[in-house]
Give the backbone structure.
Amino acid sequence: MSIPTRTVRAACPHDCPDTCAMQVSVDDASGRVVRIQGRAEHVTTHGALCTKVSRYAERTYHPERVLTPLRRVGPKGAGQFEPATWDEALADIAGRLKALAARDPEAILPYSYAGTMGLLQGESMSARFFNRLGASQLDRTICASAGGDALAATYGGKVGMLVRHFAESRLIVIWGSHSIASNLHFWTFAQQAKRAGAKLVCIDPRRTETADKCHAHLQLRPGTDGALALALMHELVANDWLDHDYIAAHVDAAGWAALRERVKAWTPERAAEVCGLDADAIRALARDLGTTPQAAIRLNYGMQRVRGGGNAVRLIALLPCLTGAWRHRAGGLLLSSSGWFASVRDDAARQRPDLLAGRRPRTLNMSTLGDDLLREASPDFGPKVEAVIVYNSNPVAVAPESAKVVQGFARDDLFTVVLEHFLTDTADHADWVLPATTQLEHLDLHTSYGHTDVLLNEPAMAPLGQALPNTEIFRRLAAAMGFDEPCFQDSDETLAAQTLRGAVTFEALKASPGWISLPIPDAPFADGGFPTADGRVRIDVPGWGLPDFVPPWESVASAPELAARYPLAMISPPARNFLNSTFVNVKSLRDIEAEPVVEIHPDDAAARGLHDGALVRVFNDRGSYHCAARVSTRARPGVVNGLGIWWRKLGLRGTNVNEVTHQKLTDIGQAPCFYDVLVEVEAAA
Ligand SMILES: Nc1nc2c(c(=O)[nH]1)N[C@H]1C(S)=C(S)[C@@H](COP(=O)(O)OP(=O)(O)OC[C@H]3O[C@@H](n4cnc5c(=O)[nH]c(N)nc54)[C@H](O)[C@@H]3O)O[C@H]1N2
Ligand SMILES: Nc1nc2c(c(=O)[nH]1)N[C@H]1C(S)=C(S)[C@@H](COP(=O)(O)OP(=O)(O)OC[C@H]3O[C@@H](n4cnc5c(=O)[nH]c(N)nc54)[C@H](O)[C@@H]3O)O[C@H]1N2
Ligand SMILES: [Mo]
């Protein structure tokens, strides 16, 4: 047996709060990666990887990896390509982009998200390229901007508790998160707390495996979290479970005086009606929050994918400020930790907004891609989108209202370039597919939105075939375009050095075990000091006013006429063994998920004559998709759970759950409302 002789420090690149520290073992003789493990010494990773990422080598060595540039030879969407050389690809792409840019560079749109969360293979050389070009800018809203903007307005930044301190909490409220599936390494700390006697409460319309393991589950209607938060405040006030000293010292006084009036009307009975909960369950939760020191909330992004998601986050974020839970390091709230990295990340040095040279291109919202690809030029829109360059994202599968997204990408007059590992649904629509490296094949740096460490990812193996890092692809494209600024020659090492500053430098990271923890106080807001202008938590936000309950776009209560035709609310949280649409093509993982499913409550199934396993059609005016019915009390009556996000071509009849989602946006942050949807379900013909 050959013994691996080399280990490489790595970081998990996926869009997940855990950002694990990994160790990659490489067989020295063959140069092949033979094993990927979690680093035992890294506190949050603690030696454990999820099922998906422990199979990362299977993904890298997948026989269907794209390993040469591919030129389209069939109709758009057919996925028919022929191999080409890099020189041919770059010359053709540069020629097309130059011609467009000569007319109007804003006709060119970058489209990317967090396929890798790496600071280098994400927005570094790519951002320089599009800034220099003067292309349209992209507002990256598809995941977290409702909650993120709300949190930043309330606390002054995307900051919160340190995740490891949840292990000491006495009460943990898991709010809008299926932690076991999507934040596994937080769950480990929650388990420690549970073993030490803590109470765990889950707030989720779906009875997830996480909910099963909590002491209480508030199975509310989707999009009603704001009403619940208002009723909790009502109870905190009514029972005087308030930390008056903390409020006086650290909370926006006028805002609280006004909000305190508003919550008077939000009795538990009123919220119970809106949320579909039992008023006593709301009272019990308020009592727990108001009387347990070391009460912690793990808020997550699942609850903000609805019209009122931003306001709900503003309200929930206030709860630990009213009870003074922040006084203890195991109390408070964590939605995102990404704001803690502001002092060590030099985004301007990495992305070079100065290359815009005074131009101010329009910004398009990535969540309305379907509409925007179908728009003609107009004075308020600007030029028609004539080219899209996609990297680190699979919009045909993940963007809302797929029918329009597909129709847009099918346009014969749209020039599409996709940097990818695989022929995804989006790559199938490309004029050119360019082979990108995976995390095992390139250098990168990572910060996190769930913990507070900066991680190093060293390349473990040579790139397969002709694959290149995103950075190198944009470097070569810049050269082909004739961009001669010296910053387009910066190597990945140079980019890495430019990216970090202050307490964490690239040199220090290279000399570290593979990560450096930010120096953050144990109980960061015990004495207030929120990163707002005056250090106080903000309730009344200029331009927004006081936070309030904002009802869903689509629900039985808020859209009764629509609900007469489409009576079921649908949410579409991720399937556990996929990461968004990544890993759907890894057979061992797809085999665990077996087929796309919609969970439906036994009463709703019976009313429609559906049995478990039946092939069903889920539909509304926007579209329909096929999947198997899973009759289960994991679904609330009146709510169906369409687990995502399948590749269309690997699902049933070439569609997925985003056929029925819409492009209306959240109250704050211009984000999509994936979990704010009405549908009907019927047996499929
Ligand atoms: N295995 C796995 N892990 C992932 C991902 C994945 O696809 N697969 N995705 C990653 C990404 S991109 C992200 S953004 C994070 C997301 O991580 P989280 O923010 O934790 O989101 P989800 O796990 O999607 O959890 C969403 C939960 O919210 C519930 N939910 C839906 N609507 C509502 C509502 O109106 N109110 C409340 N209270 N709950 C609601 C859903 O039923 C679901 O259980 O996870 C990351 N981790
Ligand atoms: N209905 C519904 N829709 C949703 C959601 C939902 O819960 N329900 N969740 C939403 C959320 S939270 C998010 S974050 C978005 C996610 O949407 P996306 O960001 O599009 O995420 P993925 O589907 O994982 O696609 C990422 C792609 O990037 C590629 N990739 C990975 N690394 C690299 C690299 O280094 N270079 C290049 N060139 N490519 C790379 C992968 O192969 C993969 O195809 O989806 C959203 N869509
Ligand atoms: Mo996300």
Remarks:
- Residues 15-16, 143, 175-178, 181-183, 203-206, 208, 222-223, 225, 300-303, 306, 571, 573-574, 576, 578-580, 675 surround MGD (ligand 1) (CB under 6 Å).
- The longest helix spans residues 86-103.
- The chain has three domains: 70-143+342-517, 146-335, 560-683.
